[in-house]
Specification:
InterPro entries: CobW/HypB/UreG_nucleotide-bd, Hyd_mat_HypB, P-loop_NTPase. This is CobW/HypB/UreG nucleotide-binding domain-containing protein. One of its GO terms (molecular function) is zinc ion binding. The chain is of the alpha/beta class. It has one domain: 3-Layer(aba) Sandwich (Rossmann fold), CATH 3.40.50. It contains eight helices and eight strands. Strands 1, 2, 3, 4, 5, 6, 7 and 8 form an eight-stranded mixed β-sheet that branches. Strand 2, helix 2 and strand 3 form a beta-alpha-beta unit. The relative contact order is 0.18.
């Protein structure tokens, strides 16, 4: 059995920085945990983790949905962590398909949002925020206290049960609170017990299969037309 932590958030929200600061806040933790980053076309995070002495691997989805790719390869990720002798596996997803929330039942789920992304971002992000146990807000040092509180309120409108933490990805302020929180709540899981907290979108159309021509004549499968 292994401890799992799932972390998701929009691109450039500061996920990698928060994870590094969280791991660094616990003495000796970097030797016991591994990180797997899921992204779309490219990612330099593996090098960033290596600079801090953290073992990490990258999975690139290519032309697949990153979070579908994540779920399809989760068992392999757990096997990798066990082979390395880690007690904890942290997964980081870019959350590029916002309705795809790569959070698992009974596994600590963290969503990371950028305070500069706009006050309506929590409403637009879907299950990634709505089903998270903890929502971390980054870059809040660049906004006023009033803007911080409005952003917190917007998050709690979407997910009243979550804990909201403000963390500075540069200084690491607040990262120790996140570390204590997820480690306290963490439960060891067997891969056979794992289930998604929310189903993936049911979308398989001609464009999913590589079609590039535009027009109704080329649209097959699941499609939805706008009402104008």
């Amino acid at each position: 059995m292994i401890d799992l932590i799932t972390i998701a958030g929009p691109p450039s929200s500061g996920k990698t920085s928060v994870i590094i600061k969280m791991i660094d806040s616990i003495e000796g933790f970097k030797d016991k945990c591994g990180v797997i980053k899921f992204d779309c076309l490219s990612a330099l995070d593996e090098e960033q983790y290596a600079k801090h002495g953290i073992t990490a691997k990258t999975g690139l989805a290519g032309n697949l949905c990153p979070d579908h790719y994540f779920v399809s390869n989760f068992e392999e990720c757990i096997n990798w962590a066990k082979e390395k002798g880690f007690s904890t596996l942290i997964t980081e997803s870019a959350g590029l398909c916002n309705r795809c929330a790569p959070h698992l039942k009974n596994v600590p789920a963290i969503c990371i949002l950028d305070n500069l992304s706009g006050i309506n971002t929590p409403l637009k992000t879907g299950p990634m925020v709505k089903l998270a146990d903890v929502v971390v807000v980054t870059k809040s040092d660049l906004v006023s206290q009033a803007e911080k509180e409005v952003f917190r309120f917007k998050i709690q409108q979407v997910n009243p049960k979550c804990k909201v933490l403000f963390i500075n990805g540069i200084t690491g302020q607040g990262a120790d609170k996140l570390a204590r929180l997820v480690i306290t709540e963490n439960k060891k899981m067997e891969k056979e017990q794992m289930k998604l907290r929310f189903s993936m979108p049911t979308a398989l159309c001609s464009y999913c299969l590589g079609e590039t021509r535009v027009g109704e004549d080329f649209q097959i499968g699941l499609n939805r037309k706008i009402k104008l």
